[in-house]
Amino acid sequence: MGLGVLEDKHLSHVPGTALLTDVIGSDNYHSHGGLNTSALRHGKGRDSDVVLVPQPSNSQNDPLNWPLWKKDLMLFFICIDTAVVGAWGPMITPGFVEMSSQFGISYNKLNGDLGYGILMIGLSCFVTNSMAVVWGRRPVFLLGNLLLFISSIGGFYAHSFNSLLGFRLLGCIGMSPFEVLVTTTIADIYFVHQRGVRLAAWGLCLSIGVGGGTIISGYIIQNLGWNWTYGICAIMFGVWIIVLFLFCPETAYRRDDSLNADLGTGRRRVNQLTGNGNSKKSESESPEAEDIVEVEIEAIERAATNNTWSEKKHSYWHDLKIFHGRVSDDPFWKVLIRPFMMLIFPQVLFSFFAYGLTTSWLVVVGSVLAQLFTAPPYNFSVSGVGLVSIASLIGALIGAFISGPIADWIIKMMSRRNGGIYEPEFRLVLIVITFVLGGMSFFGFGWALQEQDPWIAPVIFYGLQYFSVGFMTIAVYGYLTDCHRDKAPEAFASINLRNVYSFGMNYFISDWISSQGPKEVFCIIGGVHVFICLCAIPMYIYGKRCRSWTSRVKIFEKVMRA
What we know:
The protein is mainly alpha-helical and 562 residues long. It contains 24 helices and five strands. It has a three-stranded antiparallel beta sheet, with helices on one face. A hairpin with a 5-residue loop joins strand 2 and strand 3.
């Protein structure tokens, strides 16, 4: 048992499990047990004992081999774009009361009908994800920005509710790539021990967009009108289409299977290279760390001598091409249906409930802020409702700066204590923070509103929601990436079915609060949240056996190859 994670009795190398740390001797040779691991590529500086997972190829075109400054610069531009996309969705919520009066419809109908955008995001995720898997990430990011640019121009000139709704639905299709492809891009270009900080950076920018956007939009709506929120976003997306075109190359790359030390493909690749077809024995023996290491070393050594990997470095002008050909041989329709089928995987199903339902609460709460704070005893103005989001912004900022480094530190620390072997379940330890603070935030938010406490009380609990849910986001996305890195886009599309749930909740949350009061509503939400967090305990304990099971049973294998 590795730190509470039950060992598997069937496979010698369970997909997701990998050697992450080893020992550096006085002769600068790396070793693990009695094996020399110097053939494996390692990190630098204080991470010199960290084995790079996945192992990069010898090609300069492999995104894993890009300079760190190039990776971080690209992610920086994508994260800024993500912040604007995050703001685009809820930016008009502070003006819902004013808009419902302008269009002559009720608050609940306005909120519910615009909520169809959430449903559109959830459904279009499957299409944009499939396009990215087959044709690459770069053209899909550019297409998403183009659609948001067009819809923002349309929203600026919209003077009827139906025209606004139509352009908003178009923009929601453009938002969908940022629901799944940013985390996929992080998996494309960063190693396991580097992903936590970058996932936190993405989550931070998304939260800044959602929270900070409504702060600014409150003043824009109050002084210029709600149309101008779309006008300003149109300018931003127009500029960012050019930025992404110039500085964000394609990250999808085909590398030799033997380098995927975290996917359990090393043994199969070694057998292919050596012509040894007797793999049944190796996959039925009890799991040993030395066996994992030996398979990886043998695979890397053989792959390093494979001259088919040598290729000329692409020029900057080559990288500017929008389309670089197919990056997957799978038919588009198979990739399209794969996310639905992946929901039968225990890891994906757990991630759907843990991340999907938890983050859906944030969408729901944000949609009713105007209803809660423009009414007595608070009587906030439109700009005042926007300022409530300062709490979520502060919570997200603090959470991101803490959760990212903690996430990476935890997996390295636990791997060292586990004899150098990394298990994806180590990511789930972060959910403890979400369990304690998240439950407290939902219960406290509803209670403070029901008791009509001073405005600072519910606002603090609102900020605590964003702080705590950030840890859940990093834990789940990191876990899912490490379990199914080769199918990460499809897995992320699966858990983003949560937008269907968000749509349903968004459609009746306003009436629910009006009829039963915020205390009962948010206590129910808090109870569901606590239950979901507790489900992480059996997932942590039995997760490795689930990964082994899904890699051995034929129905799961068919889904992965569908």
